[in-house]
Amino acid sequence: MVSSPVRPTGTVPLGHQQDSGSSPTAESLTAELLSTDSRVKGLARQPLPPGPLFGTDGIRGKAGDLLTAPLAMDIGYWAGQVMRASGSIDGPIILGQDSRTSGHMLASALSAGLTAAGLEVWQIGLCPTPAVAYLAESCHALGGIMISASHNPPADNGIKFFGGDGTKLGGPVQATIEAALRGQLTGLEAATAWGQCYYRPELVNRYASFLHEPLQPGLNLTGMKVVLDMAWGSATRLAEQVFLEAGAEVIALHGAPDGDRINVDCGSTHLEPLKAAIALHQADLGFAFDGDADRVMAVDAQGRVVDGDYILYFWGKRLQEQGRLPNHTVISTVMANLGFERAWEKLGGTLVRTNVGDQHVYSEMVSRGAKLGGEQSGHILCHHYSLTGDGILTALHLAALVQTLGGSLAALVDDSFTTYPQKLQNVQVTDRDRRLNWQDCAPVGQAVTAAEQAMGSEGRVLVRPSGTEPVLRVMVEAIDAALVDRWTQHIVQAVTQHLAA
């Protein structure tokens, strides 16, 4: 068991004076912070980019460029102040990281800022992102922070924030943190005592036990040969261990932490090594994780990709058969394949689409009382088991489902649906205003309209700016691959000519 956190000494957090004991809303917190005359005697603020610092999944950028040690220390300090003021308990901050070489630098700087804010920090080291979320909730923490840039290349890094309930911090609280970073809040009181930092890597073992619990008793993958591509990242800490403990025979790829090679030609965004290993070892199936192991892609014995759409279909169908899927509803995003949607509707289900981003899926799941949702990229949320996306947990569940239904993922794919041809192409658009306001470019709009009219109900177009990279994503989907290629090329050419130049 993990001992209850020791409450750090220091000032009484703003907002904790409420008789009800409930935490204040972000709006009331901001108003309270702005209304006081006290001034923070904290750390010097570092220069920030003119645009928003927080993207679709925390703060992300190139290490040493945007994400420097001084800025990370400031982020830790001001985030610590805001989280302490908005939290309902005075627990520690759980701090984890993936294998990137810049991770230790950022962890040290964040810890310095958090302890300067009077908070206790529990560093757990290399771990999957969902481990931070789980431990934040199960250890009664004030919140959690994960240092990772997910599927991005090694030179990038990022900072993701979680509340004490294990869910990602909402937009209003993130906006309050950014306002504090930019010197736009003047009511945060400096701590009167320093916090302490403790190294607690043993807590990751508690998370490993949690991964098995939902499938016990009866989890037995004996006789199943599984290939795991761990992308040199966070999955190397646990993925092979939990599959071996479940009885599977495991072939490990990229199975040691290597911050210089994380995600490079491997993992969930580069499936060729996984396909080759499955064929070479005649494995039953394989799983590829991204750098922080909060998402997963599968491949069957025939080398076919089983993405998040298929995983949602298989898992949703199973929950529906068990009477555990409220209103037969699954939440996905605008990227979900039309083939998946129409197959799910044939089962009597409803597919609700949101904007891209797990926070949008989560929000829609909460508002509708849905239990299953996720993204085509393999980020799956099942509220029967966890409140956050978890690649290793998803892989275990899919492997257990395959074993229960006869041991063949390929047979499940054969009996499911055929995806519509879909093509996603990224076009680099470095000008942020052009990227975010691409709809204002008439030639690009005309190219999109022409494609939509030509394909009619047999296809669709999605153009959206990335929230993590300086690119505009162009996706075309249609019943015919030739249409997809033609109209993707047409739209990409317009974007390249009129926005990327």
Q: Which key phrases capture this entry?
A:
globular, disordered N terminus, alpha/beta, 501 residues, Alpha-D-Glucose-1,6-Bisphosphate, Chain A, domain 3, 16 helices, six-stranded mixed β-sheet, 18% strand, TATA-Binding Protein, five-stranded mixed β-sheet, 3 domains
Layout: helices, strands, pairs:
Blueprint: H1 26-35, E1 59-62, H2 69-86, E2 93-97, H3 103-116, E3 121-126, H4 129-138, E4 143-147, E5 156-163, H5 171-181, E6 197-199, H6 203-212, E7 225-229, H7 239-245, E8 249-253, H8 272-281, E9 285-289, E10 296-300, E11 305-306, H9 308-321, E12 329-333, H10 338-346, E13 350-354, H11 358-368, E14 372-374, E15 380-382, H12 391-404, H13 409-414, E16 422-428, H14 432-436, H15 442-455, E17 459-465, E18 471-478, H16 481-498
Helix pairs in contact: 2-3, 2-5, 9-12, 15-16
Describe this structure in words.
The chain has 501 residues and is an alpha/beta fold. It folds into three domains: 26-201, Alpha-D-Glucose-1,6-Bisphosphate, subunit A, domain 3 (Alpha-D-Glucose-1,6-Bisphosphate, Chain A, domain 3), CATH 3.40.120; 207-414, Alpha-D-Glucose-1,6-Bisphosphate, Chain A, domain 3 (3-Layer(aba) Sandwich); 422-498, TATA-Binding Protein (2-Layer Sandwich), CATH 3.30.310. 36% of the residues lie in helices and 18% in strands. It has 16 helices and 18 strands. Strand 17 (459-465) and strand 18 (471-478) form a beta hairpin. The longest helix is centred in the first third of the chain and has 18 residues, at 69-86. It is globular. 51% of the residues are buried.
